[in-house]
Structure formats: C-alpha cells, structure tokens
Amino acid sequence: MIRKGYRAPSQLVLVLAGFAVVLAAAVASVWLIRQSQDTNDRLTQALTVTNLIATMRADLRRAESGQRGFLLTGKAAYLNDYNTTRGRLLPELDKLAHLAGSEAAAETRAGALRSLIEAKLAELGKTIDLELTNRHQEALALVATDEGLALTQQIVENLEQILAEESATVDAARRSSDRTDVALFAVNLAGVVLISALAYGAFLLFQRNTRQIQASEREVRALNAELEARVAERTADLEDANAEIQRYAYVVTHDLRSPLVNIMGFTSELEALRESLFRQPAPAEAQGPPASEEDRRLVELRGDFDEAIHFIKTSIAKMDGLINAILKLSRAGRRELAVRRIDLNDLVEVIAADFRHRLKESGAELVIGELPTITSDRMALEQIISNLIDNAVKYLRRDVPGRISVKAEETPTSHRISIADNGRGIDPKDRERVFELFRRAGPQDRPGEGIGLAHARGLARRIGGALGVADNPGGGTVFTLTLSKLWMARQSASSKSASAAKGAAA
Amino acid sequence: MNSQVPVTIVMIEDDEGHARLIERNIRRSGINNEIVPFSSGRPALDYFIGGAGKCGLEKGKGYLVLLDLNLPDMSGVDILRRLKETSQTERIPVVVLTTTDDKTEIQRCYDLGCNVYVTKPVNYENFAEAIRQLGLFFTVVKVPEVG
Fold first, then answer.
1. Shortest CA distance to A448 belongs to which of A361, A321, A328, A356?
2. Which of A2, A97, A102, A191 has CB atoms 3.0–4.6 Å from A110's, for a disulfide?
C-alpha cells in the first residue's frame, strides 16, 4: 500500500511537533517567570528604599528636635535623644547607597547626600559642644545663621528626589510585570491551543488508522471465509468425484459380470456337449495306435477343443478374480466406517498372532514398539496393517534373518505408524506403482494379485490418512501410515453430535 | 408344481444369454412348465396389467415371476411395485433374480412385497446350482390362481 508509506512520517511529525510545542512553552514560561522574579526583586528593593528614606527623614527631624530641646531647656533627656538618633543616620545612608547600586549617577548622588548629612551632623555637633561648654549665646547664634535649616532642606530635597525616582522605577517594574504576566498567559494559552490541535490531529490520524486496520481485518476475514468456502467446495467436489468413481466401479463391475456369467455358462454348456461332439474313442486307444484315420482326427480335435476350453476357462477365472477384486475395493469404499477409540497395541498384537506361524517358519522376528491409542475404524486399520505385515513377511530375503518392526511416532498433527522390514526392498521407480491396482514390483515369484497395497491406500484415505513407502536405511522397505489427528477430532465430534441427536430422538 | 393349476413362469431378463441359461437349468431340475420370456420391462408390464387386448393373463391359470432388477428401459423395482400395487397381480409370487447384493436393495424389494430374493452367483457352477435349486423349489411351491 502506498498510503502506508505516507502515513508513518506524518505520525512521527505530529509527535515531534507536540514535543517541540511543549518544550517551547516550557522554555518561554521559565524565562518569563525569571523575568517576573527580577521585577519582584526590584519592587522589593524599591519598597525598602522608600522605607529607609522615611526612616532617615524621621531620624533627621528627631536629631534636630533633640538638639533644639537641649538648647532650650538644658535637660539631659533631650541630649540623649539627640545622641541616639544622630548615630543612626550614617549607617542608614550606607544602606541606602548599597541598595542604590554601583551605577555612577547613584554613587554621585549618594556621595552628595553623604557630604550634606555630614555637614548637618557637624553643625548640630558644634551647637551641642558650645552649649556643653556653657557658651549658650554662641550656640544660639550659630542656629540663628540658618545654615542648619538650609542643610536640612537640601537633605530632604535629595531624599525626595530619590523617592520620586524609586517610585518611577516601581511603576515601570509594575508595568513590566503586568506585561510578563500577559505574555506568560499568552504563551501557555498558545501552548494549550497548539497541543490541543496536535492532539486532535493525532486523534484523527489514529481514527483513520484504526478504520484502515479494521477494513484490512474485514478484508482478511472475508478472504479467509472465501478460502474456507473454496476449500469446502473443492473437498465436496473431490468427495463427489470419489463417490462417482466408486459408483462407476460398482456399475462397471456389475455390467462386466453379466456377460462373464454367459461366457462361463455357455463354456460349461459346451464342455458338457464335448462327449456328444466327439465320440468316445475305442477302449483300445490306451494300448495301441488309433484304429482308424477318423479316430486319430477325433483325438486331435478333442485335444484342440480341450485346450481352447482350458484357455477360455482360465481366462474367465482370471477376469473373474479381477472383477471381484475391483468389486471388493468398491465395496470397501462404500462400507460405513465404525469410528471408535482403538488401542493399537492390542490391535497389532492380534494381527501378529495370525502371522506367528509364518514368521516361525521363515525364522523371522516381529518387533512391536509402544503404540498409541487412536480414534479410527478398526476393520480398516486391521486390513491395512495386516496387509503391510503380510507383504513384509512375503518379501523377506532368504539369505538374512528377517526382522520386521512396527513403530509409532507422534507429530503435532498426526500419528505415524511405520512397518519396516529388511526384505528385498522396492526399486525407487516402482515406489508409486506398487500402490496401483493390479501392479506389482520386482520378480513375480510370490503369489499375489496386485490388489493389497491399492486396497490399503484406499482404506488409509478413507480413515483420513495416507500411506507411503520409503527405503529402510538398513536395507529393505518402510511403509508409513500417517493418520491425521484433525480427522480423528472431527470424527469424534460428529459421532458425539450424532449420538446426542440419537439420544434426543429416543 | 401344482398339477391342477397350470403355472406359467414369466421371466423378465434383459440378457438373452442369462435367460437361456436360466431356462436350461430350470428345465434340468424337471420343470416343464411354459416359460414366457421378456427382455425389457414395458412389454412385461403390458402382459400383466396392460389394457384391452394387451393383457396376456388367463383366468384360472397360475403365474410365477422371475424378475431381474437391471433392465434397459425401467428398473425391476418399478415393475415389482406395479405388480404388487395392482389387484389382479398382487398375489403372483415374484422371485427377484439379480446380480445386485446390495443390502438396501434387498430390503427395498422385500418391503415392496417380493417373495424371494436370489443373487446370481458369478461363478457358473454356483449359478447353475442356484437355478436348479430354484427349479426344485418351484416344484413344491403353491401358486394362487388368477381370478
């Protein structure tokens, strides 16, 4: 099929595309999540900076108010408050500078802020020192210069500028975070859509493949059914042909018999007329030469007559034998089989007993191996096996001690029963010929009509078997009867159903 | 055979040789009755149950049929059936003398009312012997008159 070659890669492409989409979506998601994390970090940093700036502003105001309280009242509580808060400002600035990063603008701004804060702290420290050394007026004069106020204002402006910048950064980060979220959603949605599309494509492809497989299966089933039907048809044809041959043989032999009866009958009638036709010669004939010319002619004629009658009668007897043989075969073919379980050991034992005398006479031995129990027709098996053993005994060699063996072998589909001998053997060119009717192989020095093996093969076929011949490796011949297990199973199934039907009818 | 009623033997046999051999061997057993031979079925049936002018049966006489089953124009079984179906011939004894020794065929003939079924032996000596014994049987058998 050409479509198959095109289908396989498209399936592979679908799978690869699916993997690619999943991978791309995963990479994009990871990247976007990292982005979003960066934004979050920046947001956190901005919040910290905002908080820090608020703290710094508050601390600056507290330090200032502590200074002023001390200057006004001279109480140590104000001085304490001033001292704790002023110490916090520079570390807070360090933290802020660290958070702002190492960019040039940020460093410049941090440096400016630092000098402003240091100047402010110096101004504050100076007024406190003057107050502690009881130079109250000088301290107030220093405050009155408004230098401290200007410094504070500058610091606050600087801090507010940083705050504004941070808030701009936060806004940008928020926008970027929103964009990242949208992109993440879009990427995942696109992934889901693509995967769904691929899955749907795969589903369609799978469905198509399934339909194709189902169609092929249907096709195979149809072909099988057709094949079985054809086999059944052929079998029926063969059975018909076989039955026809059987009928034909039967009719022919019957029709041949009728004229044969006439030939025999009238030959016998003629023979009965012999005495009337040829006058009995004178009793003197036995002692001396015939008395007359007529007598001598009569004796001659009678001799010719007797010879003719003899040939006619022997020919008739032979023909009668042949016709009877064919009739016997056709009858065997028409006989109803009685299929049942048969222990071949028993069956062969019984046959062997019939041959015991002949075996003893020829000094031969018959070895019987372990044989199976099978389903078959007893009479057919008996005839086949006894025919084969009979042949084996008949054609043993005179110069070596005869040895005949019966063995069985089981295959998954059949039982093989082989009868081997060390006799004279059969010429390879005669192997098939020996199974033909009225044909025999080798020197025709033993009695026989050439029917046995034809009959045996016919019987073997009837019981679902085959009969073949091969060389015995040690010299001689092996005949193998192969009996089909399928035939046995069918027979026992049909006999079971038949007996079940009979039981139902009873 | 019954001396008061003259019995005619009707022989339906397609093979003339067989017919001749049967006749000779019957005669040899001392049967001198008239033998009417037919070599096919149709004329034989006409003889028994044919229409006016064709029927050869005579009142007051006895008949006995020797029937071969293998006939050229019709089966001997059909002749047997017709004879046993017809009132005027149903009592006539029928001896089936044929080569067939098929079991079902034998059963069928007896079912149809055949009185004796004899298989022709193939061997001539046996054949002649069987016919002679049949002839002897004919000498003692009683045959009803045709009414």
1. A321
2. A97
Could you report the per-residue pLDDT of A200-249, keeping only the tens digit for each? 988 988 899 899 999 999 999 999 999 989 988 998 898 888 778 877 87
End-to-end, the C-alpha distance of chain A in Å comes to: 59
* Strand order across the beta sheet in which B116-119 lies: B35-38, B7-12, B62-67, B94-98, B116-119
User: How far is the CA of A193 from the CAs of A11, A22, A25, in angstroms?
Assistant: 19, 11, 11
Tell which A residues from 377 to 396 touch B, by Cβ distance under 8 Å.
none
Q: How far is CA B83 from CA A208, A381, B79, B113, B116, in A?
A: 77, 46, 6, 9, 15
> Which residues have C-beta within 8 Å of that of residue A248, sequence separation ≥ 6?
none
Query: Average pLDDT, stretch A56-77?
Result: 87
Mind telling me how many Å the CA of B17 is from chain A's nearest CA?
A: 6
Structure tokens at A426: 């059969």
- Comparing CA positions, the residue from A157, A129, A152, A158 lying closest to residue A64 is A152
What span, in angstroms and rounded, lies between the C-alpha atoms of A265 and A273? 12
* Amino acid identity at A136: H
Q: What percent of chain A has pLDDT over 90?
A: 18
| In contact, A371 and A348? CB cutoff 8 Å | yes
Decide if B124 and A254 are in contact by the 8 Å CB cutoff. no
Please tell me which residue of chain A has the smallest CA distance to B15.
A258
A402 touches A364 (CB < 8 A)? yes
DSSP characters over A133-175: TT-HHHHHHHHHT-HHHHHHHHHHHHHHHHHHHHHHHHHHHHH
3-state secondary structure of A245: helix
Answer whether B17 sits within 8 Å of A257, measured CB to CB.
Answer: no
Three-state DSSP class for residue B106: helix
CB proximity list for A25: less than 8 A, separation 6 or greater: A187, A188, A190, A191
pLDDT of amino acid A8: 53
The owner of tokens 């007559």 is A305
Q: List, in sequence order, every residue forming a beta bridge with B9; answer none if it has no partner.
A: B35, B64
Distance, CA of A86 to CA of A58 (rounded, Å): 11
B75 touches chain A (CB under 8 A): no
Q: Does B103 touch chain A (CB under 8 A)?
A: no
As a whole number, mean pLDDT of residues B109-134 equals: 86
B18, A260: Cβ pair inside 8 Å? no
A220 contacts: CB under 8 Å, gap ≥ 6:
none
A257 Cβ under 8 Å from any chain B Cβ = yes
The structure's pTM equals 0.48
Q: Name the DSSP letter for residue B5.
A: S
Window 279-338 of A: residues touching B by CB (8 A cutoff) are 320, 323-324
d(CA A435, CA A382): 18
Candidates A59, A67, A55; CA nearest to A85 is A59
Are the C-beta atoms of residues A376 and A463 closer than 8 Å to each other?
yes
Tell me the one-letter amino acid at B73.
D
**Do the Cβ atoms of B21 and A259 come within 8 Å?**
no
